[in-house]
Amino acid sequence: RAVSPGSWFELGSCTKGARVFSLRDLDFGDSPAQACFQWGGLVGWFVFQVALLDIDICGPSIPKMMGLEGEQVHQSGSGWSPVYVEENLGVMSVGFLLSSPDDAVIWRGPKKNGLIKQFLRDVDWGEIDYLIVDTPPGTSDEHLSIVQYLSAAHIDGAVIITTPQEVSLQDVRKEINFCHKVKLPIIGVVENMSGFICPKCKNESQIFPPTTGGAEKMCQNLNVSLLGKVPLDPQIGRSCDKGQSFLSEAPESPATSSYRNIIQRIQEYCDQHPFQEEKII
């Protein structure tokens, strides 16, 4: 919950009391990155100070979606300065350190861990209310590192993103099991690509049928909260490709309404689990 000095190394300059949650994903595509993009912007609408940390080291897509391609990280006396989309939305990604967006990052675990630690220790985020962490698919070094490094900072929890198909849900169950094993709270699950609502007739079609009940059934079986379902909207992909805010481009879209409701659920979770500062030795 708090991003503050702690553990066995310093956690940058984030203010005490900031809420921290990780977006995790086991399905195809860049669903967590899209969610970070939309949710980061939406939280910003509520006049919160938001930091978005992209630790998808080998596939950083946040700069593209945020319209920040070509931006660079600058060094200051207090550390690295994040790249700002708005005054209240700062972003840090390995994509800002590459000479070209087509450059491949071919790193083993220790080097990835070192960069994640540096992002947390050396970035001058300033005072923030929310730290959103975008992780790559799976349960790899990046996931273990962020949980370990932020263990003393009281991560509010993980938001896990899936799609309705069983092939995705099967992997998401492993992700939920991972969270239980490392004692990372699960805020809830989001079902992405959940049906398509025709903009004319408003009828819903299941493009990816939930053959085993989808995320809703899985959440019931595993006693995990379902935060919401985000329907397909072609405008989401177009907005991400252009680095524009889908929320601004399509304010009346059912997907925008879903994003708003999900953010509200996450805020309610944070309100129900207030930060309690502990003494770190």
UniProtKB/TrEMBL annotation:
<keyword id="KW-0067">ATP-binding</keyword>
<dbReference type="InterPro" id="IPR033756">
    <property type="entry name" value="YlxH/NBP35"/>
</dbReference>
<keyword id="KW-0411">Iron-sulfur</keyword>
<keyword id="KW-0408">Iron</keyword>
<keyword id="KW-0547">Nucleotide-binding</keyword>
<keyword id="KW-0479">Metal-binding</keyword>
<dbReference type="GO" id="GO:0140663">
    <property type="term" value="F:ATP-dependent FeS chaperone activity"/>
</dbReference>
<protein>
    <submittedName>
        <fullName>Nucleotide binding protein 1</fullName>
    </submittedName>
</protein>
<dbReference type="GO" id="GO:0046872">
    <property type="term" value="F:metal ion binding"/>
</dbReference>
<dbReference type="InterPro" id="IPR019591">
    <property type="entry name" value="Mrp/NBP35_ATP-bd"/>
</dbReference>
<dbReference type="GO" id="GO:0051539">
    <property type="term" value="F:4 iron, 4 sulfur cluster binding"/>
</dbReference>
<dbReference type="Pfam" id="PF10609">
    <property type="entry name" value="ParA"/>
</dbReference>
<comment type="function">
    <text>Component of the cytosolic iron-sulfur (Fe/S) protein assembly (CIA) machinery. Required for maturation of extramitochondrial Fe-S proteins. The NUBP1-NUBP2 heterotetramer forms a Fe-S scaffold complex, mediating the de novo assembly of an Fe-S cluster and its transfer to target apoproteins. Implicated in the regulation of centrosome duplication. Negatively regulates cilium formation and structure.</text>
</comment>
<dbReference type="GO" id="GO:0005634">
    <property type="term" value="C:nucleus"/>
</dbReference>
<dbReference type="InterPro" id="IPR027417">
    <property type="entry name" value="P-loop_NTPase"/>
</dbReference>
<dbReference type="GO" id="GO:0016226">
    <property type="term" value="P:iron-sulfur cluster assembly"/>
</dbReference>
<dbReference type="GO" id="GO:0005829">
    <property type="term" value="C:cytosol"/>
</dbReference>
<keyword id="KW-0004">4Fe-4S</keyword>
<dbReference type="InterPro" id="IPR000808">
    <property type="entry name" value="Mrp-like_CS"/>
</dbReference>
<dbReference type="GO" id="GO:0005524">
    <property type="term" value="F:ATP binding"/>
</dbReference>
<keyword id="KW-0963">Cytoplasm</keyword>
